[in-house]
# Entry
Amino acid sequence: MHASQQLAIVVNANDPQSKRIADYYQLKRGIPDENVIRVNLPADKKSIGRNKFEQIYQQVINSTPPHIQYYALAWSQPFKVGCMSMTSAFAFGFDEDYCAKGCNSTRQSAYFNSATRKPYHDFGIRPTMMLAGSSVEQVRDMIDRGVESDASYPEGTAYLVSTSDKASNVRSHFYPSVASQLGKRINIQITNTDALEGKNDVLFYITGLKQVEKIDSNQYVNGAIADHLTSAGGVLFDGRQMSILRWLEAGATASYGTVVEPCAFPQKFPHPAVVINRYTSGETLIEAYWKSVAWPGQGLFVGEPLASPFAGII
# Structure
């Protein structure tokens, strides 16, 4: 079964922009009508409580065809459910084991670096991504980039960036092994800088900073993944740090950030070896990105889920 048949779009009937995004995505990806699920959410709130979410989630579960493996949420807010991100709440159901009070670990995702192509059948998890952005036009552009990336086999570079921010730079110790494992398959550059500038081939941009400068100076290939490890990148609007939406505005096709203070646990962020390996092996964006986060309960995935630049390899 094609990936577009296995994905359901959840649309917020209270949000005219949500309907426009859902309609556009359904058209561009050929998603069947039976895979479109309507809910009623407050469109003006960043966060909803557990009780409200569980009512909506039950409606969604009841309306979800059994073959569905993934959800795409066609809105930009709310992006948080109590102590969980909206995407993890949809993937796992609301479960405080995926939250942490203070600087603590959370439950691990059974989907982490797994070989499955059917996460719901194998683990009871439906990985979820938000079709979010600062405007409908920006979301449409992101969708277009994802669709155009399919089977494009881009000659892009994975930039693994080591910054001056010690707390946010905790993924940098993975970089040498990523380069040695995957450097024959994809061009990997390990760089010590707080900001890449003027690069024209960004396929991955992995970094750690509260605010990343000059991201607009780079060109991102269709299907590019970019994220910065920091406390609140998943707070999409009016946050105290750079929102992951800035990456999408700059030309990336997906990003990830936390909605609750994660503390600097690398397990709460994408592992560069996993996402690069799985994406360049032909998995879709939602598969490769979700599989790369061991503890995703507090983290928000935003992007075009079905982008598959290396489709057909596996």
Notes: Residues 16-29 form the longest helix (14 residues). The two ends are 15 Å apart (CA to CA). Residues 226 and 247 are 6 Å apart (CA to CA).
